[in-house]
Amino acid sequence: MHATRFVIVALLTAAAAPTLSAHHSFAAEFDVNKPVTLNGTVTRVEWGNPHIWVYLEVKDEHGVVQPWQCEGGAPNTLTRNGWSKDSLKPNSSITIDGFLAKDGSKTCNLRTVKLPDGRSVFAGSSAPDAPPPPKR
Amino acid sequence: MKRLAATLLVILAMTPLAGAFADGRQEYKPPAQQEYTPPTGPAPRTASGKVDFSGVWEKPYVPDMTRDGKGQKSEGDLPFTPWGEAEWKKYDAAEGDYTGACLPFGMTRSMNTPEPMQFMQSDKYLGFLFEQNSWFTVVPIDGRTHRDGIATWFGDSVGHWEGDTLVVDTVNFNGKTRLDTVGHPHSDQLHLTQRFSRPDLGHLTYEVIVDDPKTFTKPWKNVRTLTLRPDWEMMEYSCEENNKSLWEGRIKVPKYKP
């Protein structure tokens, strides 16, 4: 049983492996010091270059539903890795881990998108390649 | 128990991942990428006997040319001149990010991207087809000298053979690009030397030497290994198609002096 569990964990880890995008510098748009976790409902997915975008509705601390948008990887790389626009359907409940945009809008760079059962979709964002602290 | 684990791993290794979570949910499609083994054999040659680099190649992603990564070896900290050091220290991508604004990546950043590239080769030319932004550059490799044209984002490249190594020499850059994603600088005095060799069918050895006396006190280099992907086709990549980050003001266009 432990072996089975190990295999499943290993597969989930592989599924969560990041894909990469180099369209823009992470630091140009997002703040690596502002991680965010969003629990919400998917409204739509845009599957176009240079990045996919996941739109979702998230309840704020007052219970008011707020629209959010999160940037993912490049569709070409995601497609080569087996994902498609249909990998995440509208009305799906998801948890996104990512980083907030610097401009304070309800925008994030998604690091992971998880379904309620813990599986990840769209493993892909530029966050794993966020520039390291500059050597200055 | 170990035997059970090993058996399960073997079964899973032989099973397409698409079936690993066969629970009928249409919206879930697991990643297809797994360990890849390139084809083996000797490096192919053209009809005229030159090493043939044609094919679709997987490149290591190199966001920072001072750091080692999978398939890439750096030389560590860069030998900046005072001018180069100042350019590096003042760089802030949030003030202007030319690639985010869909301006041309330039030669080094195009070679650095995680997207694949295709080489198309004749006796006269080597075509660099970059998937990133569907950009290309065509390099004469018949021994001619540099053109005396206007400075450009990708510079002016010519190639020549040193035995089985193709050496591509590039000058006349416009100085508006950065060497890598983290923003290491260069000037319009940049002189790039890219050396291509093919130790076998499945691999390409790539060496890029950065020489820029305004920015660095001495030349430095990266050495990388590219992997042949006959199972891949190049895909269209429109940078402008849905560049929301630019339209919505989160990415800014750099202010270049005319």
Counting DSSP E segments of at least 2 residues, the number of strands of chain B comes to: 10
**Range of helix content of chain B:** 10-25%
Task: Give the helix proportion of chain A (percent range).
Answer: 10-25%
- The DSSP helix count of chain B reads 4
Q: Which architecture of chain B per CATH? A: Beta Barrel
Q: Count helical runs of chain A.
A: 3
What is the CA–CA distance across the termini of chain B?
70 Å
What does this structure look like?
The complex is a heterodimer of chains A (136) and B (258). Chain A is of the alpha+beta class and 136 residues long. Chain A has one domain: Nucleic acid-binding proteins (OB fold (Dihydrolipoamide Acetyltransferase, E2P), Beta Barrel). Helices cover 18% and strands 38% of the residues of chain A. Chain A is built from 3 helices and 6 strands; from the N terminus they run ααβββαβββ. In chain B, a hairpin with a 3-residue loop joins strand 3 and strand 4. By secondary structure, chain B is α+β, with helices and mostly antiparallel strands. Chain B has 4 helices and 10 strands; from the N terminus they run αββααββββββββα. The termini of chain B are far apart. At the A-B interface, helix 1, helix 2 and helix 3 of A face helix 1 of B.
